Write a sequence for this structure.
Protein backbone atom coordinates (compact mmCIF):
# COMPACT_ATOMS: atom_id res chain seq x y z
CA UNK A 1 0.00 0.00 0.00
CA UNK A 2 1.01 3.59 -0.53
CA UNK A 3 2.16 5.83 2.28
CA UNK A 4 3.28 9.43 2.43
CA UNK A 5 5.69 10.84 4.97
CA UNK A 6 6.53 14.38 5.97
CA UNK A 7 9.22 15.67 8.27
CA UNK A 8 9.75 17.30 10.50
CA UNK A 9 6.34 17.18 12.19
CA UNK A 10 6.89 20.54 13.88
CA UNK A 11 9.42 23.28 13.39
CA UNK A 12 10.11 26.62 15.06
CA UNK A 13 12.41 28.91 13.11
CA UNK A 14 13.52 32.53 13.48
CA UNK A 15 12.72 35.11 10.83
CA UNK A 16 15.38 35.15 8.14
CA UNK A 17 16.49 31.57 8.64
CA UNK A 18 16.41 28.94 5.87
CA UNK A 19 13.80 26.21 5.55
CA UNK A 20 13.71 22.70 4.20
CA UNK A 21 10.65 20.47 4.47
CA UNK A 22 10.68 17.00 3.01
CA UNK A 23 7.96 14.77 1.66
CA UNK A 24 8.38 11.20 0.45
CA UNK A 25 5.92 8.72 -0.99
CA UNK A 26 6.24 4.96 -0.80
CA UNK A 27 4.51 2.21 -2.71
CA UNK A 28 3.92 4.00 -5.98
CA UNK A 29 5.94 5.28 -8.90
CA UNK A 30 5.77 8.52 -10.85
CA UNK A 31 3.28 10.19 -8.52
CA UNK A 32 2.08 13.73 -9.03
CA UNK A 33 3.08 15.70 -5.94
CA UNK A 34 1.67 18.83 -4.33
CA UNK A 35 2.61 21.27 -1.58
CA UNK A 36 -0.20 23.13 0.21
CA UNK A 37 -0.13 25.69 2.98
CA UNK A 38 -2.90 26.07 5.52
CA UNK A 39 -2.74 29.29 7.51
CA UNK A 40 -4.63 29.61 10.78
CA UNK A 41 -8.36 29.83 10.16
CA UNK A 42 -7.98 29.64 6.41
CA UNK A 43 -8.37 27.04 3.72
CA UNK A 44 -5.72 25.22 1.75
CA UNK A 45 -3.57 27.15 -0.67
CA UNK A 46 -1.79 25.21 -3.40
CA UNK A 47 1.85 26.32 -3.51
CA UNK A 48 3.57 23.96 -5.96
CA UNK A 49 2.91 20.82 -7.92
CA UNK A 50 5.14 18.43 -9.81
CA UNK A 51 4.43 15.87 -12.50
CA UNK A 52 7.94 14.44 -12.59
CA UNK A 53 11.56 14.72 -11.53
CA UNK A 54 12.79 18.28 -11.90
CA UNK A 55 9.38 19.53 -13.07
CA UNK A 56 7.93 22.14 -10.74
CA UNK A 57 4.96 24.43 -11.29
CA UNK A 58 4.43 27.37 -8.96
CA UNK A 59 0.93 28.52 -8.15
CA UNK A 60 1.68 31.51 -5.96
CA UNK A 61 4.71 33.80 -6.23
CA UNK A 62 6.47 34.00 -2.87
CA UNK A 63 9.78 33.43 -1.16
CA UNK A 64 9.32 29.66 -1.18
CA UNK A 65 10.64 27.20 -3.73
CA UNK A 66 10.21 23.51 -4.39
CA UNK A 67 12.35 20.78 -5.86
CA UNK A 68 11.90 17.17 -6.85
CA UNK A 69 15.29 15.53 -6.90
CA UNK A 70 13.91 11.98 -6.99
CA UNK A 71 10.71 10.40 -8.27
CA UNK A 72 9.11 10.09 -4.85
CA UNK A 73 10.72 12.99 -3.02
CA UNK A 74 9.40 16.53 -2.88
CA UNK A 75 11.16 19.31 -0.98
CA UNK A 76 9.90 22.74 0.03
CA UNK A 77 12.55 25.36 0.73
CA UNK A 78 13.15 28.95 1.59
CA UNK A 79 16.35 30.97 1.82
CA UNK A 80 14.91 33.47 4.32
CA UNK A 81 11.71 32.85 6.25
CA UNK A 82 9.11 35.54 6.85
CA UNK A 83 6.60 35.72 9.69
CA UNK A 84 3.88 35.18 7.11
CA UNK A 85 5.35 31.77 6.24
CA UNK A 86 3.99 30.33 9.48
CA UNK A 87 1.35 27.68 8.92
CA UNK A 88 0.60 24.04 8.42
CA UNK A 89 2.26 22.59 5.34
CA UNK A 90 0.73 19.60 3.67
CA UNK A 91 2.16 17.37 0.99
CA UNK A 92 -0.15 15.33 -1.21
CA UNK A 93 0.09 12.90 -4.09
CA UNK A 94 -2.14 11.51 -6.78
CA UNK A 95 -1.57 8.79 -9.28
CA UNK A 96 -2.61 10.48 -12.48
CA UNK A 97 -2.72 14.21 -13.01
CA UNK A 98 -4.99 13.89 -16.01
CA UNK A 99 -7.61 11.71 -14.32
CA UNK A 100 -9.56 14.38 -12.53
CA UNK A 101 -11.62 11.88 -10.54
CA UNK A 102 -8.55 10.59 -8.73
CA UNK A 103 -8.43 11.91 -5.21
CA UNK A 104 -5.31 13.33 -3.63
CA UNK A 105 -3.77 11.58 -0.64
CA UNK A 106 -2.33 13.78 2.07
CA UNK A 107 0.60 13.47 4.40
CA UNK A 108 0.44 14.20 8.14
CA UNK A 109 1.69 17.76 7.72
CA UNK A 110 4.41 19.98 9.18
CA UNK A 111 3.55 22.74 11.63
CA UNK A 112 5.90 25.67 10.99
CA UNK A 113 6.11 28.60 13.38
CA UNK A 114 8.27 31.55 12.40
CA UNK A 115 9.20 33.84 15.30
CA UNK B 1 -12.89 28.78 -13.64
CA UNK B 2 -13.65 26.34 -10.87
CA UNK B 3 -14.46 27.51 -7.35
CA UNK B 4 -16.03 26.20 -4.16
CA UNK B 5 -18.00 28.01 -1.49
CA UNK B 6 -18.68 26.47 1.87
CA UNK B 7 -21.48 28.21 3.70
CA UNK B 8 -20.70 28.61 7.38
CA UNK B 9 -17.17 28.53 8.72
CA UNK B 10 -18.44 26.93 11.91
CA UNK B 11 -21.36 24.57 12.54
CA UNK B 12 -22.38 23.29 15.95
CA UNK B 13 -24.75 20.37 16.50
CA UNK B 14 -25.79 18.22 19.43
CA UNK B 15 -24.77 14.59 19.62
CA UNK B 16 -27.35 12.51 17.77
CA UNK B 17 -28.56 15.43 15.65
CA UNK B 18 -28.42 15.74 11.89
CA UNK B 19 -25.20 17.08 10.40
CA UNK B 20 -25.53 19.28 7.31
CA UNK B 21 -22.46 20.96 5.83
CA UNK B 22 -23.08 23.04 2.76
CA UNK B 23 -20.97 23.25 -0.38
CA UNK B 24 -21.71 25.06 -3.63
CA UNK B 25 -19.44 24.87 -6.61
CA UNK B 26 -18.80 26.65 -9.85
CA UNK B 27 -17.33 24.74 -12.75
CA UNK B 28 -17.07 25.31 -16.48
CA UNK B 29 -16.89 21.56 -17.08
CA UNK B 30 -18.68 18.59 -15.50
CA UNK B 31 -17.25 18.62 -12.02
CA UNK B 32 -15.62 15.99 -9.88
CA UNK B 33 -16.27 16.81 -6.25
CA UNK B 34 -14.73 15.68 -2.99
CA UNK B 35 -15.26 16.00 0.74
CA UNK B 36 -12.27 15.71 3.03
CA UNK B 37 -12.07 15.68 6.84
CA UNK B 38 -9.18 17.04 8.90
CA UNK B 39 -8.69 16.26 12.57
CA UNK B 40 -6.51 18.66 14.60
CA UNK B 41 -2.88 18.72 13.52
CA UNK B 42 -3.39 15.97 10.97
CA UNK B 43 -3.54 15.70 7.22
CA UNK B 44 -6.73 15.47 5.19
CA UNK B 45 -8.63 12.21 4.81
CA UNK B 46 -11.04 11.55 1.98
CA UNK B 47 -14.66 11.10 3.09
CA UNK B 48 -16.26 10.63 -0.30
CA UNK B 49 -16.11 11.69 -3.93
CA UNK B 50 -18.52 12.32 -6.78
CA UNK B 51 -17.40 11.19 -10.21
CA UNK B 52 -20.73 11.25 -12.09
CA UNK B 53 -21.57 7.58 -11.47
CA UNK B 54 -24.39 8.32 -8.98
CA UNK B 55 -25.77 11.55 -7.56
CA UNK B 56 -26.00 10.20 -4.01
CA UNK B 57 -22.58 9.27 -2.77
CA UNK B 58 -21.93 7.32 0.40
CA UNK B 59 -18.67 7.71 2.23
CA UNK B 60 -16.91 6.60 5.34
CA UNK B 61 -18.10 7.12 8.92
CA UNK B 62 -21.77 7.28 7.89
CA UNK B 63 -21.46 10.43 5.79
CA UNK B 64 -23.10 10.93 2.43
CA UNK B 65 -23.46 13.74 -0.07
CA UNK B 66 -25.88 14.46 -2.88
CA UNK B 67 -24.85 16.08 -6.13
CA UNK B 68 -27.51 18.50 -7.39
CA UNK B 69 -26.58 19.98 -10.73
CA UNK B 70 -29.53 22.38 -10.83
CA UNK B 71 -28.45 23.87 -7.51
CA UNK B 72 -24.69 23.48 -8.13
CA UNK B 73 -24.49 21.95 -4.68
CA UNK B 74 -22.79 19.01 -3.02
CA UNK B 75 -23.90 19.15 0.61
CA UNK B 76 -22.54 16.69 3.17
CA UNK B 77 -24.90 15.02 5.62
CA UNK B 78 -24.92 12.50 8.43
CA UNK B 79 -28.14 11.44 10.15
CA UNK B 80 -26.74 11.29 13.67
CA UNK B 81 -23.66 13.15 14.88
CA UNK B 82 -21.06 11.51 17.10
CA UNK B 83 -18.55 13.29 19.29
CA UNK B 84 -15.82 11.81 17.11
CA UNK B 85 -17.17 13.74 14.10
CA UNK B 86 -15.81 17.00 15.51
CA UNK B 87 -13.28 18.14 12.93
CA UNK B 88 -12.82 20.48 10.00
CA UNK B 89 -14.43 19.54 6.71
CA UNK B 90 -13.34 20.67 3.26
CA UNK B 91 -15.20 20.51 -0.01
CA UNK B 92 -13.11 20.48 -3.19
CA UNK B 93 -13.57 20.48 -6.95
CA UNK B 94 -11.06 19.44 -9.57
CA UNK B 95 -9.78 21.95 -12.07
CA UNK B 96 -8.26 21.13 -15.45
CA UNK B 97 -4.97 19.36 -14.96
CA UNK B 98 -6.18 17.49 -11.90
CA UNK B 99 -5.54 20.18 -9.31
CA UNK B 100 -7.97 20.51 -6.44
CA UNK B 101 -9.70 23.77 -5.56
CA UNK B 102 -10.69 23.76 -1.89
CA UNK B 103 -13.35 25.65 -0.02
CA UNK B 104 -12.43 27.58 3.08
CA UNK B 105 -13.51 24.76 5.34
CA UNK B 106 -16.25 24.27 7.94
CA UNK B 107 -15.41 23.46 11.51
CA UNK B 108 -17.92 21.05 13.02
CA UNK B 109 -18.44 21.04 16.79
CA UNK B 110 -20.51 18.33 18.47
CA UNK B 111 -22.04 19.07 21.86
CA UNK B 112 -22.79 16.27 24.31
Amino acid sequence: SQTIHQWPATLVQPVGSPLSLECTVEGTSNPNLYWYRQAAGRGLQLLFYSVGIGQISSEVPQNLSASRPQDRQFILSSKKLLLSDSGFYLCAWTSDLWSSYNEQFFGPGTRLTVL
Amino acid sequence: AQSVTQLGSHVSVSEGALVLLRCNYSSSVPPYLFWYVQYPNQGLQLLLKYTSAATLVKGINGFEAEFKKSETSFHLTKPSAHMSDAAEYFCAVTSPGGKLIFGQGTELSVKP
In short: Residues 63 and 78 of chain A are 6 Å apart (CA to CA). The two ends of chain A are 38 Å apart (CA to CA). Chain A has a mean pLDDT of 91.
